[in-house]
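User: Can you fold this complex?
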Amino acid sequence: SAVISQKPSRDICQRGTSLTIQCQVDSQVTMMFWYRQQPGQSLTLIATANQGSEATYESGFVIDKFPISRPNLTFSTLTVSNMSPEDSSIYLCSVADAATDKLFFGSGTQLSVL
Amino acid sequence: GDSVTQMEGPVTLSEEAFLTINCTYTATGYPSLFWYVQYPGEGLQLLLKATKADDKGSNKGFEATYRKETTSFHLEKGSVQVSDSAVYFCALRPGSGNTGKLIFGQGTTLQVKP
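Assistant: Here's the predicted assembly.
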């Protein structure tokens, strides 16, 4: 299994600012995934982060709004840029274990934008 | 596009009651189906899965059968315990999707009373 640490666990931010969320995994993984869970809604995949290449974004998400870094096989960051109250969500980092077909999730970052 | 629909919660049961949480899906091709669970204060974790029609996933007394004819993957448990109180998410992975791309239902909160 993979142990995933996310920082910060929660934050309250002002509109127009940016927040960078960090995700650290205790083992090397090829792909890391960023999800968003808006209040009262299901989880939605934002993007897939591969080491050494640009992230792949899902429909409705763009790099200018959610830039992602993947400097090595155990670490990734997601930035939420130019925030508005609509960005208030829980952001989750996850990694996949292809052998067991499991997704492992971090505990999430609860973001509130005022 | 592909989607997952879960019964709305919260679901409140007495200990030892029978549990069913309904889940239906819409997908092209041959998706894999999952149930994830989030216990209070913890991250999402895989509960069970099924990768093809008529497969039954099971874990911790929970079961779900992949029914292609009814496009359903209902979660059942014969006798719930207080420790089963959690949020349950049904999810699918498109047949052609990467390991980390899951489409989630909105989640169903289960509360078990002693």
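The longest strand of chain B covers residues 86-93. The mean pLDDT of chain B is 93.
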